[in-house]
Amino acid sequence: MAEEPAAVPRRSRVSGKVALAATLGALLVVGAGLGLALSDAGASTPAVVASGCGSTNPRLTVQGTGQASGTPDVLTAVFGFSTTNGSSASALAANNAKVNQALAALAANGVARHDAQRTGLSLSAQYAYLKGVPTLTGYLVSNTVAATLRDTNTAGAAIDAVVDASGDAVQINSLTFSFGDPAKVADEARADAVHQAVAHAGAMAVAAGRKLGPVCALTDDTQPSQFPQNLGVAAAGTSAPSSAVPVEPGTQVETDQVTMVYALAQR
After folding, report:
1. Which of 1, 96, 124, 149 is most exposed, with minimal Cβ within 10 Å?
2. Alpha-carbon distances, residue 89 vs 57, 124, 144 (angstroms)
3. How many domains is the chain partitioned into structurally?
4. Based on the domain organization, do 88 and 146 belong to the same domain?
């Protein structure tokens, strides 16, 4: 007679359910802990305020102005070209010819193509008013070319070549000197401004019976500046000198201003 298989005790089934519930609970706890850890890791770190720079601490705000000078090595020349004709197409064609002649003259004097830029073009009808009645007399085309001359020793010859090539149609609007590396002179002026601000802060703190704490803020307040030189050279039809246009870059001064905020401490 075959033996019947032994029945599984009820207690072991209950124990299995308890173990499974405990395992699931442990997984939920670990998951919650991992999520908390990821949430904490993703939270932004609060900004650290320097000791003494809190909103309730006394502060001292000072300004400093510094200067540095150098010889400009870049000259930007702006030329204007004007032509008139009875028809708009003819006026534009004549203007294009004058501008192309000027660009060729610049290239022949070592000016790179990317350093010559057309900055303006306009076409307008011209009228004569006879007894208050407008009568069309022709068309005026105006064009502007800005040339960056990176060698001040040959800049005068380049300007003279443009005037010779374009004749009465050209006008020199302005010359602007600048630095090929403006950051160098600007940094010198900025450093001078900071040194002045530090000296002012130290003197004021001593006079107030305090001592300087950490720097809470440092701001550069300088605005970019240019130094245009407008020339009244109208056209080449007048008695132009046979030699090249004299170019004197001289000395250019860069000015910088900074604002510093110090924390104040007891002496």
Report:
1. 1
2. 73, 12, 18
3. 2
4. yes
Strands 59-70 and 116-130: unpaired
Q: For residue 204, what are the domain limits?
A: 59-69+183-224+257-266
pLDDT of 44 > 80? The answer is: no
Domain holding 192: CATH number?
A: 3.30.110.170
Comparing 37 with 259, the larger pLDDT belongs to 259
pLDDT class of 16 with cuts at 50, 70, 90 = very low
Lowest average pLDDT, out of 4-8, 66-70, 260-264, goes to 4-8
- At 108, the amino acid letter reads A
Residues forming beta bridges with residue 22, ordered by sequence position: none
In sequence order, what are the residues at sequence separation of 6 or more whose Cβ sits closer than 8 angstroms to the Cβ of residue 84? 91, 126, 138, 139, 140, 141
A 10 A CB-CB count for 143 gives 23
Q: Which residue has the higher pLDDT, 136 or 56?
A: 136
Question: Is the model's pLDDT at 7 over the cut of 80?
Answer: no
Pairing of strands 210-220, 133-149: unpaired
pTM above 0.85, yes or no: no
**Alpha carbon distance 216, 94 (integer Å):** 63
In this structure, the answer to whether residues 191 and 86 fall within a common structural domain is no
Inform me whether the pLDDT recorded for 183 exceeds 60. Answer: yes
Distance between CA atoms of residues 69 and 59, nearest Å: 33
| Rounded Cα–Cα distance for residues 87 and 74 (Å) | 39
Q: What are 254's strand-pairing partners?
A: 68
CA distance 210 to 265: 6
